[in-house]
Design brief:
The complex is a heterotrimer of chains A (369), B (336) and C (336). Chain A has 369 residues and is α+β, with helices and mostly antiparallel strands. In chain A, 26% of the residues lie in helices and 21% in strands. Chain A folds into 3 domains: 117 residues, OB fold (Dihydrolipoamide Acetyltransferase, E2P); 64 residues, no CATH class; 150 residues, Chloramphenicol Acetyltransferase (2-Layer Sandwich), CATH 3.30.559.10. The longest helix of chain A has 18 residues. Chain B has a single domain, classed as Rossmann fold (3-Layer(aba) Sandwich). Chain B is globular. Chain B is an alpha/beta fold. Chain B starts with 11 loop residues before the first helix and ends in a 20-residue tail after the last helix. Chain C folds into 2 domains: 180 residues, Rossmann fold; 129 residues, Rossmann fold (3-Layer(aba) Sandwich). In chain C, strands 3-2-4-5-7-6-12 form a 7-stranded mixed beta sheet, sandwiched between helices. Chain C has a 5-stranded mixed beta sheet with strand order 9-11-10-13-14, sandwiched between helices. In chain C, strands 1-8 form a two-stranded antiparallel ribbon. Classes of the chains: A alpha+beta (369), B alpha/beta (336), C alpha/beta (336). Chains in contact: A-C, B-C. Chains A and C meet through helix 3 of A and loops of C.
Amino acid sequence: MAHDVLMPQLGMAQDAGLIVAWHKGPGDPVAADDVLMEVETDKATMEVPAGRDGVLATIRAAAGEEVPVGNVIAVIAADAAEAERVAGEVAAASANDGDAPVEAGATSASPAPAAVDAIAVARTEGATAEAPRPTGASPSGNGTADIAAPAADKGAGPTGRILATPKARRLAEARGIDLAALVGSGAREPILYRAVADAPDPGEASIAAPVATPIAASSALEALAERSAFDALLAEADPAPTRAAALAAFLAGAWRGSRGADSLRIAVQTLGAPPLRLTDPDRVPLSRLGGDDAAAGDGAPDISLFDLTESRLASYRPAASGTSLTLLGDGTAFRLLLAFDERTLPLSEAAHLLDELARRIEDPIRQLL
Amino acid sequence: MTLTDAPGAANAKNAERYLRLYRQMTKIRAFEDNANALYLSGKMPGLTHMYSGQEAVAVGICEALETRDKITSTHRGHGHCVAKGAAFKEMFCELLGKAEGYCRGKGGSMHIADQANGNLGANAIVGGSAGIATGAGLTAKRLGTGDVAVCFFGDGALGQGLLYEVMNMAALWSLPVIYACENNLYGEYTKVEEMAAGALTARAAAFGIETHTVDGQDVLAVNRLAESLVARARRGEGPFFVVLETYRYHGHHVGDINREYYRSKAEEAEWKSGRDPITNFGKWLVAEKIATAEELDGIGEAIRAEAEAAVEYALAAPYPGAEEVAMHIYAGSAHA
Amino acid sequence: MRGPPMRELTLSKAVNEAIAEEMRRDPSIILMGEDVAEAGTPFKVLSGLVEEFGPERILDTPISEPGFTGIAVGAAMTGMRPIVDLMFGDFLFLVMDQLCNQAAKTHYMSGGKLSVPMVLRTNMGATRRSAAQHSQSLHALVAHIPGLKVAMPSSAYEAKGLLKSAIRDADPVVIFEDKLMYQDKAPVPEEEYLLPLGKAEILREGRDISFVATSSMRQVAEAAAARLAEDGVSAEIIDPRTIVPLDEETILASVRKTGRVIVIDEGHQSFGVTAEIAARIAEKAFYHLDAPVGRMGAMDVPIPFSPALEDLTVPTPERLVERAMASLRGEPVHGA
């Protein structure tokens, strides 16, 4: 555990201390008895020991500053690795909003000056340019941010603090997951451990970060697929799943086959049946798709599937910028319409996905293998 | 002067016993004089209650006991502790909260205990030790040790129900317990007549307990009665109840200075000048030619010097280390 | 541990056996209380003991709770190992001075020189239609006092093993038996066994939520866990067995595993055992919590006589299931 070094109370009536000098710098190993800094009070200048063994991770008040008693002036980490992490957080938080790092649970300690940015310990592995951590306003990364209100509006509670359990917070911190982004992507408050555990790595989120000028809010691709082999497969399953569920399984298989994924949530809609949410339906035998095996919990879907094959409808243009697949039928073939946002699903990947899906429908052996 | 050993009883064989009575009473007085001075000079923390004036009670009874016999004591307990054989050094250390005190500084004036000498401890709850003394009597009877337990308490404790409950059981079970009621005429700041209806001895008599009343300023009378009751208690004839008429020279506690509202200075002067147990016993020793006045002065001087040396020692002695604060809560484990 | 096949005993008989075995082993053990001899107590827990050990060791006392508790303290200080039978837990209020000022503090106040190896057996538990002065569960009161140990057996097995350890312990131990469980049977080995004071038991392993349940609340927790299992919820049950000393580590380890916990105890909820355990969890396992710490105690009302009212005052499996489901759903109970 990282340890906060506080401005000590050195005199009876002292309410602040002037930091005269630091004897250690960020990254230095320190022993409990080592002199960490010199502090001047109304009485005298005193040498203050570190108080514990570890590695000085960050200094939050530079020499020459007067700091109220009790405020955090430095952080001592248990070891070099933790020191790097602490320093990394300092740098990231500072880069984001120019504010001093505020620990979870920090109270009214006044912010340390921004000047300390410069002395945060540098990473030794070379990865000095820290990517900004996602903040409350960032999209959640897989094209589903639009289905939820912006995080700022959801920042539940009169305090604006996001409600999350201590266990969930701990995991979020360990994984570098931004709770505000989770709320933004539809997670319910209080955020529980499971919601954080199920959230994608922030690395995946960075794919979504805008790297170029958006091409379009919603692009579209269309494909045709012979359906007889698919229909025959469906008829053999006992019990037979709904066509929409089976299509979802094929869609998941195509997604995983063309782009890879750990876990896939698919929102399924048809006319005349309640909406359905499935997780990894391609990993469940067709005959069990009707059961609970692929039932999804809460959480935003990666893709929406709209099965209109038994209807008189001829087209659908989604207004939202997520990824959605609409199926239309003309008797012997399915017409597949893929609507997607190129900022989250690049054109080449979308094309591969749709092509793969059409091939699987025409030749289900590709799916079953 | 009402000392009651018959003239001529003081033979050479008894001389040492008489001198020991004198020495023990003088030790209590010297201890209390020093404790009082320590307190008034701000060197002793807390609160303390002086036994001065009542020395003949503690010494008369405890000199009839053996080391293995048990006593329980009160908030006014320094006298009982000295009389049962405690040493000045450990006592002063305890009063000052020092590590070498009998209780390692954890008990202080009101809880001083000296297990090695059979003192099960002073008690800051008035009447609170009545059960403990009776329990010690039960142990003696169950194990057949022949030990006797003496429960010292003041007239104020007669207001406590516990005393009557345990005296009832002691009588039912014929326990070797002597209930020693030191009637020093005041319970805290109130006269005993205002607080206790009826005769004091009638309380115990109601349980069928044999009762006695004795002049608590006459160490020989107290000691002779105690010798007799202790011997009988050892034979299974207990329990007994004794009222010892005595007087406390100081207020209820050190610092109870302005006390005219409950007792007069004239009354105090009368007890101190006419009925002081040490002075009167000293005169008797001289009259019986057991000691000369000079020899008695010498005894007093030596004891006062011993007390002062113990005070100096205790003042310089170390306090217990902080690690002791969580020790002794439970047996065998240093921590709670 | 509990090797098959094992006989079943009532809690009442298990207590009786524990006392008899220990009294055969150690002649310094005596038992005292109201109607403990021929009557064998109103719950018939002690039937047969006086026939084996005689009235000298199974002492019928007058109805004087402070008196016989105080006598037990003194007897314990001087070499006996008394077991005090306090007929109803509600009578603890009568013996508070002897238990909390004397027994609990003697070892500490004497700097570790005196000890009080006594056991006070009493009971707890409502829904026996005994109204406000014979139904209380007052263990928290005693647990608040440093120097006392507090055991709360949750079945006949625990009752025997904990009582035997308590009798052999060097400190004063208060044991609360739930009077509604006296006739409840549980497997108890034929061969001798002791259960250590201060070691909790995991009665049921689980994954989703922890129940920390004392005494008969174990039965509430077990019933609730069975119902939750039907819904696929896996509850872990911890029986602390003694609340002083408290086996914090076992509780915290369970909470770290499940992330959710409800503490169930039959004492009044406010300022009680549930509060203490909940606070320790919040202090020491906060970052492992996935829901607020829940607690269920008796309502903060004097126990009413009417069955229609009394049954509302204690935790039930139904209410525990509700609370557990709320915890699992992540419903914020307070402060959301």
